[in-house]
Structure formats: structure tokens, C-alpha cells
Amino acid sequence: MMPTMPEFLLDHSLPALFLLSFCASTLVPLGSEWLLVLLLLEGSNPASTVAVATLGNSLGSWTTYLVGFWGGDWLTRKVLRITRQQQQRAEVWFRSFGSWSLLLAWLPLVGDPLCLVSGALKTPFLRFVLLVSCGKGLRYLTLAVLTLRGAQVLS
Description:
The structure is a single chain. α2 (13-24) runs parallel beside α4 (46-70) and α6 crosses α7 (111-120). This protein is 74% helix and 0% strand. The N and C termini lie far apart (33 Å). It has one domain. By secondary structure, it is mainly alpha-helical.
């Protein structure tokens, strides 16, 4: 008998979280937070779970940065599905707040375009990696702490 999707994801917990986190920050409009919460509630190691989600999501953003750095309109529009309006909004944020706006690269709708614009504007890669990874790591860490505290209160 075929396992259900949740059973499959739990059986392959960290690799599935890595892949889902990566895809969520690149090509596929998915969220990875739900799987992180599920794995934590199922007893996964919090440090490993947060680290894997952060790494996967960060690597996805690095890919988007590289598309902005080297890619063209076809990759931006067809592969990443970032509209001109999303890209223009990200450019306004980026020009207003500079590279510090990359701490918010985890936000829906504006995060991927921010990474793309950062690449197109040739932000130094090390600065990009540090800011994006810190922002995404803090998001997953906050979610993990809230999940575990909430589980303690309910038990």
C-alpha cells in the first residue's frame, strides 16, 4: 500500500524538509513552515530541523540571486514566475533600504524578487548570503520556539 503524503514526508523528514524549503524559495509557490512544525511536534531534533530548513531555503534564495546576476528575462518571468510588478516593488524596497532589506527575503511575495534584484544589482555575494541566511534562520528559529512553547502549554 502506498504511504500518504504526510507519512512519506515524516519517513523522509529532514531530506523532505530540505527539498521543500529549497523549492519554497525558488520555483514552486509552497510553504515549508508547516512541515517544520509537524516535524517538531513529532519529536525531531529542533537544532537539526531549523538548520536543515534554513539551509534549504537559503540555497533556494542563492539560486534566485544567481538568476538575477547572470540570468535574463526568460528565467525571471518563465522559470521563477516573478512579474515585472513584483520586481519593481522589490527594486523600490532595495533602493530604499539597501542590502539590509535582504533580512526580509523570507517574506511572501517580495522575498524572491528581492533576491533576484539583489543579484541583478550585483550585491556582493558574501553580504547577500549572510543577510539572507540570517533572516531566514531567525524566521525558522522563531517558528520553532513558538511551536515548542505552544506544545508545552497544551500538554
